[in-house]
Amino acid sequence: xxxxxSQLQPYPFEKLRQLFAGVTPPAGLREIKLSIGEPQHxxxxxxKRAVTEGLAGLANYPTTAGSDALRQAIAGWIGRRYGIPxxxxxxxxxxxxxxxxxxxxxxxxxxxGSRPGALVACPNPFYQIYEGAALLAGAxxxxxxxxxxxxxxxxxxxxxxEQWRRVQLLYVCSPGNPTGxxxxxxxxxNLFELSDRHGFVIASDECYSEIYFDEGDKPLGxxxxxxxxxxxxxxxxxxxxxxxxxxxVPGLRSGFVAGDAALIGKFLLYRTYxxxxxxxxxxxxxxxAWNDEDHVxxxxxxxxxxxxxxxxxxxxxxxxxxxxxxxxxxxxxxxYAPLSDTEFARELLRQYNVVVLPGSFLARESGGVNPGADFxxxxxxAGVEECLEAAGRIAAFCQxx
Length: 401
What we know:
By secondary structure, the chain is α/β, with parallel strands linked by helices. The chain has helices spanning 12-19, 45-53, 68-82, 99-110, 129-136, 161-166, 185-198, 222-228, 261-274, 280-290, 294-315, 341-352, 384-400; strands at 32-33, 93-96, 119-124, 140-145, 167-173, 201-205, 237-242, 255-259, 328-332, 354-355, 357-358, 375-379.
């Protein structure tokens, strides 16, 4: 048995299940679930059709690298989206089965277990896959807090020089989960300088990049930042993206990694053994999705409407604001102390049948504090009217406190 399995903590939604054990919500209120970041907008019909049109490919084994047509579609999208030269589809792009599995397996490829004391750095709060990937690769996770008093920027001073020398992999998430913070060019410059100094690889999780609120102000991406800073070889940088949130197809399990050709080559070698080739039908649908932007613009419009209408209602009672991007409200419940974030979530369910995620479940204690404590994460993934109803219930609950 892998001894590192004992180091894994329960997933946030398992903690939530345990927290809610024994809670009976009001019978007259239907459940509104805003705890999980699962897109609930309808999947575009043209993507569904493309899946069925690609079913003939099921008679063949797919290649791990995917088809040239898919990698060309992805490379073309990257070039159009970020206004940079399209990456080399043959060496700098690799399809994956959604960003989650790739974020996990990438650590298994990058961590050198022969070097003692290996560290993997990640934001705090964070997507728990980063921690699990580090532990099961034989490394120790270390955390860079993202706090409101620092405008949710990564705290790069949290690690000593000695720790940075042991970091082999750094996960970043921009737009951030759960804060919605988008990293600016200066932040990327600092990360690249650290990477050059200490030799670690940067894994940039950008799965929320296509949910933003101003068509003229798109979130900066890692490859775009590298190009703007003269790093056109993308050395020690790989970005991860997905169709799940962009195109409302979380069940399709389709994404990509792109960046440093040397790293992509090693990751491809790993994946040929890992057995993670994408189904031809999924490849066919993915090509259609990456080549269409109209449905993505409409998707953003729906999220923008939800944020515009619900954020003011919630912000009257909880310290929150529209994020830079993404579909989460990261809301402080500190004004209702001594009620904790877990107690807030439990009572909100019991009294109003609205499910949110306690922020402390998304973070680890670091420097004597849990930076997720006294926050809740509200995923505005349901329809506009359902999100409005939930906002009204949250406001009514806060008025009772």
